[in-house]
Task: inverse folding
């Protein structure tokens, strides 16, 4: 299943699977973009908005930390 | 021709059966009868599902322009449900930047599609803005949530109302916070009606500042210099966490030792730390500016965490009320892969939140603390209602007490124009609490009035009156069918208050097209197969979060 920038839930799930031990504190946007683009099913040539990047990061935190 | 007037209506938060679900609406009616409205807050009220079958109740959302006072669930958690029920609504949200970032985090947590996100507008102290004909002035206040603001709302007829939000009158550790001079300036321009947080006004004196937490936490550091520390905290109430950070910096400065590193374990802590950074009030930076000492804050997944000697660590963890999947409970069960008792040094667990008296909380927390002690952790937890003692207390509330209200009354008396006296009204409480607030202002010689949910305060030609009739209060019951916020599956039932029977009654089930989708549903959607519905996954105790928010 391929996905693009707006599919932030799918991206977060895939990131968490690919990089389970990644520290998310102080992550730069460029680093997040690089990691997303490394995902095999990611297919989107457009530039992500700040809102999209925030959404991906926030969702990744929730799927990446077993809490609540 | 209608008489132009401005009305304030409590849509939620002034409840007969407890506090929570805060929402207020201000409406201006022009001479030609046209009306314009804005809403302040749209929160959630806790329900005991075992008794009612309902997870939460949310306040109505009656306007497309929404001002948010702060990022606690009893003021904001209704919004995402209203978006799901009406995703096409062009919602504009005006809030401090921290509240904005926090809202965004909450919306992504539940998977709100990007295209359904509301439009956020960041507000700042001193920068007035216009919304739907109203001129709005945000004024910083201090609360346990950073970025808390009061709103002065001036309607087209010049009526000025101030909703102080949740507040206390001492300084904030993060952000601007309460400033007597600033509040005095607001009263000097004339405020016709002022609405005050009544949560703690039945208690005497002034709620202590976060300085008291810093002093109490420094004592703990002094008495446990070699211990590996784990501190339970509530992420959204980050003012208290900042007081701990300052304590660490000051202690390091005073003793010439290396400051401990804060290691965050738990999604909400990592999230809030980032929200603070994005709002320009990051804790490391703010602490360095204030003390000259850099205190590092990292997350538990950072490989650097393992290299830090145990006696230089403070694990900040979630789960002060023993929530099953939160960090502290998992440590107590030996299931937290990041945190274990250290060998060769003492281990100290400070649960920085008193037990909230609800359900089996006390038993759950007792069991967790006992399990930690069995692992070798020495434990500390504040007692609810214990007197504040300088140098001992390490937890304070974000809600003002009677002394804080007296201070507001004094600021009004000293500044308000002689021909424009303020009427004070207690909100954010039950009858006993709101009445207590009004008695305090009355005792200080101020004008007061009293309203319940669905009752209006009407200001016309400078006269302030309570509407003699009470409207039909409404709310929406939220039933989380699978108790899993990561895979949302909600039912919504509109309820109305029957004033004769004095009880809430179901009106109708709200039909809606689901936009908060589970992983399976999203996969099926992308394949064009429609709705899926796998249940299970992580349990998320949102009800407890809402309850904690309204008491902090």
Result:
């Amino acid at each position: 299943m391929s996905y693009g920038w707006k599919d932030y839930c799918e991206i977060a799930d895939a990131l968490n699977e690919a990089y389970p031990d990644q520290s998310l504190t102080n992550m730069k946007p460029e680093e997040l973009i690089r990691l997303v683009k490394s995902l095999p099913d990611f297919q989107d040539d457009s530039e992500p908005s700040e809102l999209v990047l925030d959404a991906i990061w926030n969702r990744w935190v929730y799927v990446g930390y077993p809490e609540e | 021709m209608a008489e132009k007037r401005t009305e304030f209506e409590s849509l939620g938060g002034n409840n007969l059966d407890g506090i929570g679900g805060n929402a207020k609406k201000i409406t201006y009616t022009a001479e030609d009868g046209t009306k314009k409205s804005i809403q302040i807050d749209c929160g959630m009220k806790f329900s005991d599902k075992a008794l009612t079958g309902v997870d939460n109740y949310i306040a109505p959302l009656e306007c497309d322009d929404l001002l948010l006072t702060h990022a606690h669930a009893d003021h904001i958690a209704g919004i995402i449900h209203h978006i799901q029920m009406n995703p096409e609504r062009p919602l504009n949200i005006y809030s401090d930047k921290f509240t904005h970032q926090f809202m965004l985090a909450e919306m992504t947590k539940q998977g709100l599609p990007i295209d359904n996100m509301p439009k956020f507008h960041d507000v700042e102290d001193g920068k007035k803005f216009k919304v739907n004909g109203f001129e709005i002035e945000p004024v910083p206040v201090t609360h346990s949530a950073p970025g808390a603001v009061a709103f002065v709302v001036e309607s087209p007829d010049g009526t000025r109302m101030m909703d102080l939000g949740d507040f206390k009158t001492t300084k904030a550790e993060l952000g601007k916070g309460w400033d007597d001079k600033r509040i005095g300036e607001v009263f000097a321009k004339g405020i016709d009606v002022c609405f005050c947080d009544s949560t703690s006004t039945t208690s005497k004196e002034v709620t202590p500042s976060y300085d008291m937490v810093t002093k109490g936490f420094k004592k703990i550091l002094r008495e446990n210099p070699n211990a590996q520390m784990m501190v339970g905290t509530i992420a959204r109430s980050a003012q208290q966490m900042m007081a701990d950070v300052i304590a660490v910096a000051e202690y390091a400065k005073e003793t010439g030792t290396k400051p401990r590193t804060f290691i965050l374990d738990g999604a909400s802590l990592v999230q809030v730390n980032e929200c603070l950074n994005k709002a320009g009030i990051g804790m490391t930076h703010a602490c360095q500016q204030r003390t000259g000492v850099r205190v590092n804050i990292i997350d538990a997944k950072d490989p650097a965490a393992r290299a830090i000697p145990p006696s230089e660590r403070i694990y900040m963890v979630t789960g002060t009320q023993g929530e099953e999947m939160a960090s502290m409970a998992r440590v107590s069960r030996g299931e937290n892969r990041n945190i274990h008792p250290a060998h060769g040094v003492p281990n100290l667990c400070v649960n920085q939140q008193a037990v909230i008296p609800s359900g089996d909380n006390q038993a759950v927390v007792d069991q967790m603390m006992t399990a930690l002690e069995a692992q070798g952790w020495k434990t500390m937890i504040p007692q609810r209602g214990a007197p504040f003692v300088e140098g001992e207390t390490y937890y304070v509330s974000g809600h003002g007490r009677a002394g804080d209200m007296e201070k507001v009354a004094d600021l009004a008396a000293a500044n308000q124009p002689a021909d424009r006296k303020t009427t004070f009204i207690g909100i954010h409480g039950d009858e006993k609490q709101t009445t207590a607030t009004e008695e305090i202002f009355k005792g200080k010689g101020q004008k007061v009035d009293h309203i319940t949910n669905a009752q209006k305060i009407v200001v016309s030609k400078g006269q302030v009156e309570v509407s003699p009739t009470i409207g039909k209060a409404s709310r929406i019951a939220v039933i989380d069918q699978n108790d899993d916020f990561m895979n949302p599956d909600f039912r919504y039932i509109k309820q109305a208050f029957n004033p004769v029977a004095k009880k809430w009654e179901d009106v109708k089930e709200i039909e809606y097209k689901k936009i908060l989708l589970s992983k399976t549903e999203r996969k099926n959607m992308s394949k064009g197969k429609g709705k899926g519905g796998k249940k299970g996954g992580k349990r998320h105790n949102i009800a407890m979060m809402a309850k904690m928010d309204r008491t902090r």
